[in-house]
Design goal:
The structure holds two protein chains of two kinds. Chain A is α/β, with parallel strands linked by helices. In chain A, helix 5 packs across helix 6, helix 7 crosses helix 10 and helix 7 packs across helix 11. The longest helix of chain A is centred in the middle third of the chain and has 20 residues. By secondary structure, chain B is mostly beta strands. In chain B, 11% of the residues lie in helices and 29% in strands. In chain B, the strands form two sheets. Chain B has a five-stranded mixed β-sheet with strand order 2-1-7-4-5, with no helix packed on it. The model of chain B has no long low-confidence stretch (mean pLDDT 85). The chains are: A alpha/beta, B mainly beta. The interface between A and B is large, with 54 and 28 residues.
Amino acid sequence: MKCTVCKGPAVIDARRHNANFCPAHFIAHCEEQVRRAVHQFGMIDSGERVLVAVSGGKDSLALWDLLVRLGFAADGLYLGLGIGEYSDESGRYAREFAGRRGLRLHEVDLRDEYGFDVPTGAKAAKRVPCSACGLSKRHLFDRAALEGGYDVVATGHNLDDEAAVLFGNVLRWNVDYLARQAPVLPARSGFPRKVKPLVRLAEREMAAYCVVRGIDYQVEECPMAVGNRHLGYKEALNTIEVQSPGSKAAFYFEFLDKAAHRFNAGFGEEQASLLACERCGAPTPVAVCAFCRLVERAVPSRRIQVAGA
Amino acid sequence: MTLRNPKRVVEIEGPLRVHSLLDRLELNRESVLVIRGDTLVPNDALLDDADTVEIRPVISGGAVPA
């Protein structure tokens, strides 16, 4: 297998691009895909400060590496979710990555700061763990970005993530979720802009990027996520992708191009009617935001201070 | 070879190409990487009896909407 660019020995194929790459040209390919996503969707303006949501996994570390290589001012934030050994190890990968490159990594530990972790919080709130985890992440990343003066939060959602979420939402015609599925969520009062610069890169490409760049990452699957629906959707889409390379990209990007506008017409109005959470001040459609309700269920003795009180 | 998630070691007689190995193990080539040492092994590479490779899954399920 030869590199499509230089004809040297290739180490990875990108079938949807009908291309193979040597290590150097694969890195260039990943950089180009991120550069194009940032430009195509207006994700990050020059001079803006970026906070990368870092989990210690392949996508977030590759994203951080790529943004820094492309010259963006990007710091990281790692959330300690308290998922046993998995979290301990994930934190080590994040710290090691930042330490070796002299990058700034902020850390927030859910147990230290709020008195609960994802497994106990999910149980107390009667939510599935991925739901309690996602809710906590969104809230804490928003908050850290606003408090730290960051213009934008960047997450490591890749093409497979986005295609799988779209697949799940289409299967059930979750029109509210379809309205929100975009590579950029603009900043609004109380929310920083959120961007997904890896949407043009497949999950396999991100893992390959880490191997080629010598980035050590958490390979093990989150024990809370094992068997979840999204894993099944990804496998289903990959079965189609093998038969018809480019299917995942067509599914997602054609949705953005041809269908997304049909679902997001009322999205702005819904956002305009948000209130400030009585406990923490975060934007919410009801009096107390979902994160504060989760905290109060997980730790009944604890009530978050009213913002400014 | 070493397979991860869950971790297990399987011995398979060579020589055979990477894509044949994945077919034999009924693994989707979009869902894994084959790694020898710290280097990626392309799909058309020939593995022989002496090779030790890791087959690493690339799919993670923790992604939630931003």
